[in-house]
């Protein structure tokens, strides 16, 4: 390279060594001088939940609880809202609850209720308020309260139960769903109505 | 074999059946229902009391409600109609054929006289009954027939 070209090269390098740092300083300062001011009080626009309300009343949304009992029944509960009950640490309350009990043989019982309280210490879940249960064999039961154990297979309605099913309309003083061994196979759920039972069966006319 | 008229019995097979008991077990797999504890079945003019009643029903067609096909009563079975009382160890009520069969030391009290035998078959539709097996009439002493 001729001598003149070398001079030109070093002169541009010296110029760039001066211009480039200056440009970066200017660019950097612009970043802070011109940025939008941030309003910390405004909630994140995309949050679907009202942050203040949630802060005031701490609860979990769309929660799911599941447990498997000692003898193999799977208990699952999903709720629209779940919060720690005022009572004690181990107590939680849920609203708009659906629950599912799956017997070892795969037979499922689906329950819905307005409210549920889960007592961790007693390992018991209480469904209350318009409790309905649909079981595998076509029965739909209605009760006001259902106690579901989380450690062993037992779901029962201590109070009156109304059921509609293949046999007809059944009214009973109480109901229990128990696990019954099946010879040679996984255990299944047995529906037991107690405390006085009345069944009305309307035969199909004209058979 | 003695033909027994059952005058007081008109039971229409389509009459609603009411069953009252202390408890009811429903086996979710087979759908079979077992009533226990002072079971009382009522249909039309007929009453059937027993310690235990097993109800089998035929699965209804798609969506159609299944219907009770037969009832097996056992233990202190007493069948009463307006005019007759029949007692035995077991009874089978086949709703399809409308036939009640009472078996096991059957006693039939009808219009003052008592008939005993091994088996009493009652046809609810025609209101007639048939006592079978060592049929004997127990005359109550001191009563003029």
UniProtKB/TrEMBL annotation, chain A:
InterPro entries: LipoPS_assembly_LptC-rel (IPR010664), LptC (IPR026265). The chain crosses the membrane at residues 12-34. One of its GO terms (molecular function) is lipopolysaccharide transmembrane transporter activity. Gene3D superfamilies: Lipopolysaccharide (LPS) transport protein A like domain. The keyword Transmembrane applies. Pfam families: LptC. Keywords: Membrane, Transmembrane, Transmembrane helix. Signal peptide: none annotated. The keyword Transmembrane applies. It comes from the Bacteria. One of its GO terms (cellular component) is plasma membrane. This is LPS export ABC transporter periplasmic protein LptC.
């Amino acid at each position: 390279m001729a001598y003149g070209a070398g001079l030109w090269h070093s002169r541009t390098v010296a110029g760039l060594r001066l211009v480039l740092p200056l440009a970066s300083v200017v660019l950097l300062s612009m970043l802070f001088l011109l940025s939008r001011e941030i309003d910390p009080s405004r909630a994140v626009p995309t949050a679907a939940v009202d942050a203040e309300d949630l802060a005031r009343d701490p609860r979990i949304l769309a929660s799911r609880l599941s447990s498997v009992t000692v003898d193999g029944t799977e208990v699952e509960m999903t709720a629209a809202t779940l919060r720690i009950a005022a009572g004690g640490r181990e107590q939680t309350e849920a609203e708009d609850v659906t629950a599912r009990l799956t017997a070892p043989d795969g037979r499922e019982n689906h329950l819905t209720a307005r409210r549920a309280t889960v007592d961790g210490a007693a390992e018991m879940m209480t469904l209350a308020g318009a409790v309905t249960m649909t079981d595998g064999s076509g029965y739909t039961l209605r009760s006001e309260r259902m106690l579901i154990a989380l450690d062993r297979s037992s779901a029962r309605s201590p109070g009156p139960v109304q059921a509609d099913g293949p046999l007809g309309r059944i009214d009973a003083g109480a109901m229990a769903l128990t696990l019954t061994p099946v010879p040679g196979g996984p255990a299944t759920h047995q529906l037991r109505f107690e405390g006085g039972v009345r069944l009305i069966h309307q035969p199909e006319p004209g058979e | 074999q003695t033909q027994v008229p059952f005058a007081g019995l008109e039971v229409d097979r389509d009459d609603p059946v009411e069953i009252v008991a202390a408890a009811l077990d429903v086996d979710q797999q087979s759908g079979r229902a077992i009533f226990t504890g002072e079971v009382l079945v009522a249909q039309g003019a007929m009453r059937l009391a027993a310690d235990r009643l097993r109800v089998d029903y035929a699965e209804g067609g798609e969506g159609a409600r299944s219907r009770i096909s037969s009832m097996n009563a056992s233990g202190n079975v007493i069948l009463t109609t307006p005019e007759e009382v029949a007692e035995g160890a077991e009874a089978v009520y086949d709703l399809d054929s409308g036939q009640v069969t009472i078996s096991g030391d059957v006693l039939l009290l009808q219009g003052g006289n008592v008939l005993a035998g091994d088996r009493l078959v009652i046809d609810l539709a025609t209101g007639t009954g048939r006592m079978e097996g060592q049929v004997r009439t127990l005359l109550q002493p001191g009563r003029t027939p």
